[in-house]
Design brief:
The complex is a heterodimer of chains A (about 290) and B (about 775). Chain A is of the alpha+beta class and about 290 residues long. Chain A contains eleven helices and 14 strands. Chain A folds into three domains: about 45 residues; about 110 residues, Uridine Diphospho-n-acetylenolpyruvylglucosamine Reductase, domain 3 (2-Layer Sandwich), CATH 3.30.465; about 110 residues, Enolase-like, domain 1 (2-Layer Sandwich). Helices cover about 35% and strands about 25% of the residues of chain A. Chain A has a five-stranded antiparallel sheet with strand order 4-5-10-6-7. A four-stranded antiparallel sheet of chain A has the order 11-12-13-14, sandwiched between helices. A three-stranded parallel sheet of chain A has the order 1-3-2, covered by helices on one side. In chain A, helix 9 runs antiparallel to helix 10 and helix 10 runs antiparallel to helix 11. Chain A starts with 6 loop residues before the first strand and ends with a helix. With about 775 residues, chain B is of the alpha+beta class. Chain B folds into three domains: about 150 residues, Aldehyde Oxidoreductase, domain 4 (2-Layer Sandwich), CATH 3.30.365.10; about 200 residues, Aldehyde Oxidoreductase, domain 3 (Alpha-Beta Complex), CATH 3.90.1170; about 220 residues, 2-Layer Sandwich (Aldehyde Oxidoreductase, domain 4), CATH 3.30.365. Helices cover about 30% and strands about 25% of the residues of chain B. Chain B is built from 19 helices and 33 strands. In chain B, about 60% of the residues are buried. The chains are: A alpha+beta (about 290), B alpha+beta (about 775). Chains A and B meet through helix 11 of A and helix 4 and helix 19 of B.
Chain lengths: ~290, ~775
């Protein structure tokens, strides 16, 4: 539980942080540290340099502008959990932040880190897939926007280059008739998900599903967007039968592996059950 | 002047002033000048030959002072150490590792960080051997024999039996109904919040060792250290063991672990104090486990439900060495309490202890020597039988309880139960929870397709080891002790042979003395854990502190009171026989104004004692209990099961406990709250899991699932009071009742919820995936 030796830097600006990353190919960015520090303590990661971005100004934005919710890289899970804006307008995001680990972790962990770490067991990737969110990556040549759909590239792998920093997460502001929900099955509080399902949708005036996103947590090498399930419901009045059909497709489209949390069969079935329950809850909220 | 709050008062815990403020003094708070750090290289394999250990890079690591291997210990004959169960255990392996995470080498360095870097730099070449992991297969003739050092070429450690084999066989043959189940009680870990550790400080000038250590039994440990190191010239009078504040023991801090021996060896080697503190994974992976009992349980009854006989066979996985911590005559602990609260005339049990390539142990998990295993098996089987007979499990229990008038009751295995009123406790629990209405609710829910279960556990414990005719550890009788000194101003220092790990001894022992002497408990300082000052005792485990050391406290106080009577007679110029005692003072019969308080008497004991009497007001008592005590309880648990996910939710849990007379009701409630939570843990969450290579998959709190407040339901407590007839103040001990009683109540509730589907038994932990698999198999999953 004692890390190997490492150097530690606290650059005051993004360009200085990027310069450090460019100079040290094996350097790691330290933000909330809630995944990296346990990995260091177990010596699963032995980076020679940690670039701590927590002293960089301007990364704590949490506000709506131009049809987006802007979330800065240093916004903590607890900030999201406690934000009246998030609570009232982004129930899926609020649900998600509320079930990340435990309150001690949430006081430090950041949503940006949760995405950049790209652990398939993390909760926000599925939620951001459901939201069709975007992330802003800032590198030596400035900032670029990456759609979440193309952000995750594999197990612990993203579209970020080594010298890029995820500086912002953008969630589309909710349309009229929106509702969302995140359901996570965990063995005990603070656990990673046995399976998790994020659902975000909106209903048109006739009660038909207009837009819909469904993301799956910890049932594949990375978070999975359940496209076929979305397609079944899009443009339809969501009946119990259609929801069950969408859930059955999610069960087919996930790719879990057996571990202490359960067999692959169990996890597939939990994806089905949670998809049904998440869709019902999202619809309930959309109609409220 | 304060007021004496004796028995039955919910006095706030004296020790909490420091604990709640973060001012406890735990092992890792101890820092000595010049202290070095010890860290341990552990095996990545469950069974392997050590081909080579290369220390060079480690010794070249900045700050590393020394690296110790098994070969280095051979000249000192320290590579093996004895266990409490007359087996032996490796301190460090010389050529073969026996389990995953076993200690392989020790690195001593100038800081904790340097020691960890040194550990990472030690290079060990292993040649893998086939691990023996399944204890049942280990007993087959073709199994590799893992203990190469033993003459007996078998993985069987011992075979133990109790009861009447032939009589039981005959009773089974003559019975209307027989039920049988295989019940596995998995390997679990006490996971106390404070891990194990020590600071060993060798004084080469005086030839004296001070060992600060997280131990539940400091005196016994000192004796064991003297036995291990006597040939090196370290004898018992030159060893001081100090057990500071302890952050939870639960049985895991009874044994001697290799790390302790290594720290002592390192201190002797370097001439400096050496600290060793385990990290969480070391604690979970290498320290003694609990349970791991494969039980085949059978009950035989008449068709009206009256029990005829019980038979239980057990394969007990002890890991690579038998380092359980039982009384020496009881290799399977007190498993023969498995007839439980029931009047079963004929019974037989046999247990085979088996070696496997897993960490050693077989300790308690907040229980008295395998009582939990026994209670789980019999309580589970009572439900199995009720189901078979289509009887309500409460009615089947009522039919078979040992009745109050049968006490003292001699069980089929020879235990003499001191007192009990099992039906009284069950009636109270049923009334509180509304048992009959719950059964109706269950039927309604079942009709709607919902799964609800009601589980009972009407358990009996056997604690307070123990009477010297039967109980010893390595020959040392299991008495316990108290020494009370009343000083001239009436203030008291009382020392005990036990050691609190959170039980609240500083408060409850003071209350015992307050009760007996009428001295305010705040005037009484209770000390434990320092072998230089405390009287010899066997320590705190198996709910034995109140039954043994608490009793010794009362007896020592009574000796003091008798001397005080003589002094009072002298002061009052009265005849001893004419004096009467009223809390805190003696007075002349019929003349209450002619009195002397205990404080006045204490002052006189040093200033004006009678001619011919020794000065002072002190007493020591070594209490040899005449019998064990048998606390009991009736628990009822109600669960709901999610047919979609298999999740079990405890909807209600009523616990009626009877621990005899109570010293401090608030502390007892706290013990039961904690015990119930710790009983729920293995029922629903906790299990040590190994992969097919013997690698521990549950080596952190990510996967070894300790319950939090979020998993804990509201516990509804009540009590009945049936004093122990042989204990000086009628107490029985309570620290472990709830941990023993809770698991079968929960398991019975879950099986009850599924019984209409044909489910008769499920092994704990009842995880969502396990419950869901049953639901799926029975066609009941959503």
């Amino acid at each position: 539980m004692i890390p190997a030796e490492f150097q530690y830097a606290t650059p005051p600006t993004i360009p200085e942080a990027i310069a450090l990353l460019q100079a040290h190919q094996d350097a790691k960015i330290l933000s909330g540290g809630q995944s990296l520090i346990p990995a260091l303590k177990l010596r699963l990661a032995t980076p020679p340099l940690l670039v701590d971005i927590s002293r960089i100004a301007g990364l704590t934005t949490l506000s709506e502008a131009g049809g987006w919710l802007h979330i800065g890289a240093l916004v903590r899970e607890a900030d999201l959990e406690e934000s009246p804006l998030v609570r009232s307008r982004y129930p899926l995001l609020h649900d998600t932040s509320h079930v990340v680990a435990d309150p001690l972790v949430r006081n430090l962990a950041t949503i940006a880190g949760n995405l950049a770490h790209a652990d398939p067991a993390n909760d926000h990737p599925a939620t951001m897939l459901a939201y069709r969110a975007e992330v802003v990556a800032t590198g030596p040549s400035g900032a670029r926007v990456i759609a979440v759909d193309s952000f995750f590239t594999g197990l612990f792998a993203t579209a970020l280059a080594h010298d890029e920093i995820l500086t912002e997460v953008r969630v589309p502001a909710p349309m009229a008739g929106s509702g969302g929900a995140y359901l996570k099955l965990e063995r005990k509080v603070g656990d990673f998900a046995t399976a998790g399902v994020a659902a975000q949708l909106n209903l048109d005036a006739a009660g038909r599903v207009q837009q819909i996103g469904i993301g799956l947590t910890n049932v594949g090498p990375m978070a999975i967007r359940a496209r076929r399930s979305e397609d079944v419901l899009r443009g339809q009045s969501p009946s119990d039968a259609l929801i069950a059909q969408a859930a059955a497709l999610a069960q087919e489209d996930c790719d879990p592996t057996a571990d202490l949390r359960g067999s692959a069969d169990y996890k597939r079935n939990m994806v089905r059950i949670l998809t049904m329950r998440a869709l019902h809850k999202a619809l309930e909220r959309a109609r409220a | 002047m304060g007021v004496a709050h004796g028995m039955g008062h919910s006095v706030k815990r004296k020790e909490d002033a420091r604990f709640l403020r973060g001012r406890g003094n735990y092992i890792d708070d101890i820092k000595l000048p010049g202290m070095l750090w010890l860290d341990i290289v552990r095996s990545p394999l469950a069974h392997a030959k050590i081909v080579n250990i290369n220390k060079e890079k480690a010794l070249a690591t900045p700050g590393v002072a020394a690296v110790i291997t098994g070969a280095d210990l051979v000249p000192y004959k320290l590579e093996w150490m004895p266990t409490l169960m007359s087996d032996r255990q490796m301190v460090l392996p010389v050529d073969t590792v026996m389990y995953y995470a076993q200690e392989v080498a020790a690195v001593i360095a100038t800081s904790r960080y340097a020691a960890a870097d040194g550990v990472a730099a030690v290079e060990v070449d292993y040649e893998p051997l086939e691990p023996v992991l399944d204890p049942k297969k280990a007993l087959l003739p073709d199994s590799p024999v893992i203990r190469f050092d033993r003459e007996e070429k078998s993985n069987r450690i011992w075979h133990w039996e109790a009861g009447d084999r032939q009589g039981t066989d005959a009773a089974f043959k003559g019975s209307d109904v027989v039920v049988a189940e295989d019940i596995y009680i998995p390997r679990i870990h006490v996971a106390s919040i404070e891990t194990c550790g020590c600071v060993a400080s060798w004084d080469p000038m005086e030839g004296h060792l001070t060992l600060y250590m997280t131990t539940q039994a400091p005196h016994a440990i000192r004796t064991v250290v003297a036995l291990v190191t006597g040939h090196l010239g370290l004898h018992e009078h030159k060893i001081r063991v100090v057990s500071p504040d302890i952050g939870g023991g639960f049985g895991g801090k009874v044994p001697v672990y290799p790390g302790y021996v290594l720290a002592v060896a390192a201190s002797v080697l370097t001439g400096k104090p050496v600290k060793w503190i385990e990290d969480r994974s070391e604690n979970l992976q290498a320290d003694s486990f609990a349970r791991d009992y494969h039980i085949h349980a059978e009950l035989a009854a008449q068709k009206d439900g009256k029990l005829n006989a019980l038979r239980m066979g057990v394969v007990a996985d002890h890991g690579a060495f038998d380092s359980a911590a039982n009384p020496s005559k009881f290799p399977a602990g007190l498993f023969s309490i498995c007839t439980g609260s029931y009047d079963i005339k004929t019974a037989f049990t046999e247990v085979d202890g088996v070696y496997t390539n897993k960490p050693p142990g077989g300790i308690a998990y907040r229980c008295s020597f395998r009582v939990t295993e026994a209670v789980h098996a019999v309580e589970r089987m009572m439900d199995v039988l009720a189901q078979k007979l289509k009887m309500d499990p409460a009615d089947l229990r009522a039919l078979n309880f040992i009745r109050p008038e049968q006490f003292p009751y001699k069980s089929a295995f020879g235990w003499e139960y001191d007192s009990g009123n099992y039906q009284g406790a069950l009636d109270k629990a049923k009334q509180i929870i509304g048992y009959d209405d719950l059964r109706k609710e269950q039927a309604e829910k079942r009709a709607r397709g919902e799964l609800m279960g009601i589980g009972l556990s009407t358990f009996t414990e056997i604690v307070g080891a123990g009477p010297s005719h039967t109980f010893d550890i390595l020959g040392i009788k299991m008495f316990d002790s108290a020494e009370i000194r009343v000083h001239p101003t009436g203030r008291v220092i009382a020392r005990f042979g036990t050691k609190s790990q959170g039980q609240g001894h500083e408060t409850t022992y003071a209350q015992i003395i307050a009760q007996e002497l009428g001295i305010p408990e705040e005037h009484i300082a209770v000390e434990e854990g320092d072998t230089d000052t405390a009287p010899y005792g066997l320590g705190t485990y198996a709910s034995r502190s109140t039954p043994t050391a608490g009793a010794a406290g009362a007896m020592a106080a009574r000796k003091i009171r008798e001397k005080a009577r003589k002094i009072a007679a002298h002061l009052l110029e009265a005849n001893e026989a004419d004096l009467e005692w009223e809390t805190g003072k003696f007075f002349v019969k019929g003349v209450p104004s002619r009195s002397k308080t205990i404080q006045e008497i204490a002052f006189a004991a040093y200033t004006n004692h009678p001619q011919g009497m020794e000065a002072g007001l002190e007493a020591v008592d070594y209490y040899d209990p005449p019998n064990l005590t048998f606390p009991f309880g009736a628990y009822i648990c109600v669960v709901d099961i999610d047919r979609g996910t298999g999740e079990v939710k405890i909807h209600r849990f009523v616990a009626v406990d009877d621990c005899g007379n109570i010293i401090n009701p608030m502390i007892v409630d706290g013990q039961i709250h904690g015990g119930l939570t710790m009983g729920m843990a293995p029922a629903l969450l906790e299990e040590i899991v190994y992969d097919e290579n013997g690698v521990n998959l549950t080596g952190t709190f990510m996967d070894y699932l300790l319950p939090t407040a979020m998993e804990t339901p509201k516990w509804e407590l009540d009590k009945t009071t049936t004093p122990s007839p042989h204990h000086p103040f009628g107490a029985k001990g309570v620290g472990e009742s709830a941990t023993v009683g809770a698991p079968p109540a929960i398991a019975n509730a879950v099986v009850d919820a599924l019984s209409h589907l044909g489910v008769t038994n499920m092994d704990i932990p009842l995880t969502p995936q396990k419950v869901w698999a049953v639901l799926k198999e029975k066609g009941a999953a959503l």
